[in-house]
Amino acid sequence: MDFDIVDLSRLQFALTAMYHFLFVPLTLGLSILVAIMETVYVMTNRPIWRQMTKFWGTLFGINFVLGVATGITMEFQFGMNWSYYSHYVGDVFGAPLAIEGLMAFFMEATFVGLFFFGWDKLSKVAHMIVAWLVAIGSNFSALWILIANGWMVNPVGAEFNPDTMRMEMTSFFDVVFNEVAQAKFVHTVSAGYVTAAIFVLGVSALYLLWDRHHELARRSIAVASSFGLAAALSVVVLGDESGYSASHTQKMKLAAIEAMWETHPAPAPFTLIGVPDRAARETHYAIEIPYVMGLIGTRSLTEVIPGINQLEEESVQYIRDGIIAYDALMTIREKRDETPDEIRATFDIYSEHLGYALLLKKYVDDPREATEEQILMAAEDTIPGVWPLFWAFRIMVVLGFTFIAVMLFFFVRANFYGMRFPRWSLYGAVAVIPAPWIAAEMGWIVAEYGRQPWTVDSVLPTALSASHLTVMDLLITIAGFILFYTILFVIEVRLMVKYIRKGPTQDVEESEDWMRRHKARLQSMPGEPTASATPAE
Fold it and tell me: Predicted confidence band at 304 (pLDDT cuts at 50, 70, 90)?
């Protein structure tokens, strides 16, 4: 297989996946915020909360449509660009994808329609329930996608069948409750909640700077800052859980994130900043914080986190064991039902490392014929790109703590300073709007780039997963996706900007103020009953 095909396939999937994830986090977070606002409306019966629900719900709807359009494209790519991957692990990977499509997506899409067209046809309580079902459906979609993605990192609940040459599910329960999947889910949705909170905060700050829609803006800031502060704090806590999970499911990725070339005595320090040098196998100008990485990665002061060099040496042995498994597998394929029991027993012993032997396919057709040099080259391939992982992780972390500071400031001002916000803070809220998307994309670089060279960790190398396409096929489709997605992005931005500029359809804060003044006038008139001043919605 021409390795350029693999690189181009990876590029295409990366472009479409990262573009799709521009819409996902805002959808996840806005769905919850809109449901919260409508709940307050039902509880208080104040028109301002209905106005807020409709306004932010409109922006949610625009974003939701674009997210669906780009998400469908990605699912087709599994069959078109990654056909061997789909064949090899489809029995496992396909189940959560099917559930996501049949249950979560249809549930979400159905109730989105009721949300937008049911305002005058459903009772207040029924419409509020619909809003919450939209939010639940959005989060269910993320759950099943991340269960599938988590299995690629930690392939539990499945085993390789040498007779069918495929991975087969052994426990659906283990797949669903995979520790990596659960950690990914809560971390990802919390990041989505932060994204929506920052977005609502920034747009509301813009209205205050424009001296428009004060009541909507102030209340939106109060809700977004409270919700966003809780979400931003949870992102840090749940990110720590992901780091702990990686310490025993993705040791090489964790070492690469830290640019930890050699194994440190426990507890390992955290490298605050530095310049990783893969050629020299060291990190220049490193500033380290003692003990922190050991506590994050192992939650102990005695457990050791292995370095890159040690893990590479272990990979050499895994490749040798994998070659034994590959040799037994070829015998099983050749003799089928007549395979001696000792051969199957040998395969069972070494099958755990069969994927490491498949890394040699990049250099030789038959891994059993690999030279010592090729084995060492395959072992070195198990090291992902250290420099991108090192810096992507740190950008994500810095932005995460920035969000906590921003949310805490606006939470305090909203709750203890009478919703009075300095103009400089409003400009800052507007400026920080793009930051959650940058943090989310950095997170996915850490997650997906850190899994290389595996499509399914330790099971199926990326180099073997791609379809047999031509370079021209991929170049044409990449160009088509770039053109089509650019058009979609322009449409998305124009629509969002249009409705943000337009603002709410009714200036409720002014009408409420008018009703208060009108009621006061009626009460001051002699002989006029106060009951006649009851305001209509």
Answer: confident
Residue 461's pLDDT is 94
Task: Supply the mean pLDDT for the chain.
Answer: 88
Placement of tokens 């990049």 in the chain? 362
DSSP conformational letter for 452: T
User: Do 122 and 114 form a contact (C-beta atoms < 8 A)?
Assistant: yes
What pLDDT sits at residue 172?
A: 93
Query: Would you state the pLDDT for residue 71?
Result: 81
Q: How far apart are CA 341 and CA 335, in angstroms?
A: 12
Residue 528 has pLDDT above 70, yes or no: no
Q: Would you kindly state where each structural domain of the chain is located, as residue ranges? A: 3-250+385-507, 264-304, 308-381
Q: Which residue, 100, 108, 156, is CA-closest to 133?
A: 108
Question: Residue 243, exposed/middle/buried by CB under 10 A (0-12, 13-18, 19+)?
Answer: buried
DSSP 188-220: HHHHHHHHHHHHHHHHHHHHHHHT--HHHHHHH
Give the burial string for 301-324 (b: 16+ CB within 10 Å, else e).
Answer: eeebbbbbebbbebbbebbbbbbb
- Give the whole-angstrom CA distance, residue 452 versus residue 307: 17
Q: What was the pLDDT predicted at 535?
A: 31
What are the tokens at 119?
A: 């305002």
pLDDT of residue 100: 83
φ, ψ at 158 (rounded to 5°): -150, 160
User: Looking at the predicted structure, is the pLDDT value of residue 508 above 70?
Assistant: no
Beta carbons within 10 angstroms of residue 249's beta carbon: 20
Cα(182)–Cα(87) distance, rounded to whole angstroms?
A: 25
- Per residue in 335-351, is it b (16+ CB within 10 Å) or e — as a string? eeeebeeebbebbeebb
Say what the pTM is. 0.89
Comparing 220 with 77, the larger pLDDT belongs to 220
List of residues 6+ apart from 426 with CB closer than 8 A: 205, 206, 208, 209
**In the prediction, which pLDDT does 233 show?**
93
Query: Per-residue pLDDT tens for 404-443?
Result: 999 999 999 999 988 899 999 999 999 999 999 999 999 9
Give the ranges where 305-385 is alpha helix by DSSP (H): 308-335, 341-350, 354-358, 372-381
Predicted local distance difference test score (pLDDT) of residue 198: 97
Q: At what angle do helices 47-80 and 24-44 cross, to 10 degrees?
A: 150
Q: Tokens 């549930």 belong to which residue?
A: 107
Which residue reads 């449409």 in tokens?
491
Q: Are 329 and 355 contacting, i.e. CB atoms less than 8 angstroms apart?
A: no
Between the CA of residue 494 and those of 56, 63, 481, 499, 500, what are the distances in Å?
16, 12, 20, 9, 10
Q: CA distances (Å), 120 to each of 52, 115, 116, 126, 127, in order?
A: 17, 10, 10, 11, 9
